[in-house]
Amino acid sequence: MNRVLNGLFIPVSILMLSVFTSCNYLEKEFTGQKSEDLVQGNELALPYPLIGPVSQNGYQAILATTDLGIGKNRFAFVLISSEGFVNSETASLSLYRAGAQIFDQRYEAPLLDWIVPRRGSYVSYVEFAQEGEWKAVIDFLHEGNQQTVELSFNVLRNTIAPNTGEQAPDAPSKTLNDVKNFEELSTGIIRELALYRHSLAETVNSGRPTVVTFTSPAFCRNEVCGPQVDVLVRMNEELNQQAYFVHVEVYDNPNELQGDLDLARFSETFQKWGLPSLQWTFVIDCEGKIASRFEGFATSGELRSALMKLMQNVGTGQHCRTV
């Protein structure tokens, strides 16, 4: 196993909310990173993440999945209080169209634990029948009391990022053979060489499933961003004979940043995929089509479930289903 740690770590102190995140699991403080925070000429399509209002009791929801479209969507959010992240077992989610007094749909959103302590996101798969403005009312039990928070968000006719069933963009990514130093491949402190041996364009056309994550570990600064590279490392150790696992750095010049996003420019691969926010993971089938997509942090359980739906004769790596 080729894994090396270096000393790169960029502490952040922006929001008075202590959380665990990033690839070294140290306690850090974060705020949502929005498009205006990025370098000029590299603006994202949507502000991110979407932060809801604070309730009368001091609770708040933060939406990880802002790229929503008509049809079925993964709807993921975190809940926070003045003391930190809320880790109740489940939340009830009611969706209303703008101006409607009766909810359109109701869903249960279980808490999915992250690989870092006291962190988790609530995830449900929901249906939107039409585009436009929507509202989510989220009910949950915390410390013996019923709480309610709200989120207002927009649903598009078509998503911005590639959607399930679509062909993955033909976009090569940097590999070990393309650089002189590993620092040109990632801002992170974990150097798992296996994630950079193959170009994304190569794996997408390999006839084997691919799990690819787009993220910049050192700049994982908001409440819904998590240690996605760590998840891929663990999955690769177990399933590297059945699928490819690839990390694509969001920024083209990670070795030049040193914590300063004023110097950053998005990588060509990130731009060709047209991603509207800074952390995405896709599961791609054997024919190069998007099988599943995850905005914000995706747990290993979510990714494993999506990957196993493609696999036949798991253990041989010889066959897989397509979308």
TrEMBL record:
Q: Which residues form the Thioredoxin domain?
A: 162-312
Signal peptide range: none
What's the name of the protein? Thioredoxin domain-containing protein
Q: Which organism is it from?
A: marine metagenome
